[in-house]
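user: At home tonight, take the chain set out below, taking as long as you need, and be ready to discuss the fold:
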Amino acid sequence: MDQDQLAQPIEISRVASRGGSLEVIRWSTGRGRTAVAAHGYLDHGWSWDGLVPHLRSVDLVSFSARGHGNSDRADAYQWTDFVVDLAMVVRSVGAGPIDLIGHSWGAHLALDLAQMTPELVRSVVNIDGMEADHPPSAAPSLIERVRRSADLPFPRSRPGFASLAEVIERHRGEKRAAAQKQAAEMLEKLDLELNDQGVHMAFAEMRERLQDLTLEYGLFETLDRDHFYPTIETAIEATRKKQGTGPEATAP
């Protein structure tokens, strides 16, 4: 992109956060809803200048995380420090939940902030980022640290849930179920395609949990039950017998 196509900010300010200040860049105003953009690792808040011209209905605000760009260097660089940085920028933008756009490492930050402070976040656009991966057992302490630093009350629960940790666990369970269903559908499709070519899959040493999932998703309707074997050796022996190449087939 040519330099004359890059956006120019309309305001540059500073936001205090845990022992330092962050450079905050406002790129536009009056277009529509405000979104806060979180950059990738070792990047900075100015890296969004090429995207701004394409966001015709979004007022974009970006920032440089601690130790990045023109933001202050800090004594602490724990993950929660970076999440708090994002929380402080979001709170500085205005009241109400905000849309977040995160790239790579910044997307991970955005997802964690959405988990820990859901009242601050309306939506998250994840660009080539990882999922939020704090285990539920660790989540309460991390959430409390972030919320306390961002001057937000804790604990906070949603209707129908006892705690934020329960919300996180529910979300993870739904994602696991969706992934398992997708895997089952892919396996069923593969089995049907192989059967059309005269090829039959066999499974050996499958864990009991996987066998239960196979039954749960109805895969035994397409996968033959006698194609599941306790060991690799028994699978090979059974296959040889079916093909007429085993010891019993060649015995006089």
